[in-house]
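Thread title: Can someone regenerate the structure for this chain?

I was given the following input by a collaborator and told the matching structure tokens would be attached. They weren't. Posting the sequence so someone can regenerate them.
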Amino acid sequence: MVKKLAAGALAAGVLARPWTRIVVRDAPTGFLEQTVSYRVAQDKLPELRRFGRSVSADAEAGELAVRGDSEEFNILCLNLADDIAVGRRTAPQAREFYERTVTETVSGRSSPYLQRLLFEVPAPQDEPLPLP
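Best answer:
Regenerated them for you:
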């Protein structure tokens, strides 16, 4: 069931895998925040922060979150965050890949990085809470 939000309203809930939490903020400053279970090694946290792109890691909770204006670009950011966390890319390389992928998407091309998470997401520890 989809519930229409009043202007400026906030909806949050816990949904099916791979997401452990999704937060939707309506206009005028709309955003979509999506969270997955993901443990980032402490030594990779500074590089992940350098990447930016509204990606944040909560080492204590074992979560990786991203805030953007579309699920497609959130998935891109999470895939790039994984690349950084496992050492496949540096933050500058990930930012360059992000910019190139966005440009290609605008001109009609696609990338697997936009279509689905390219890493395994562990099941959440707790049972999901119902949507409000």
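Strands lie at 10-13, 19-25, 31-37, 55-58, 63-68.
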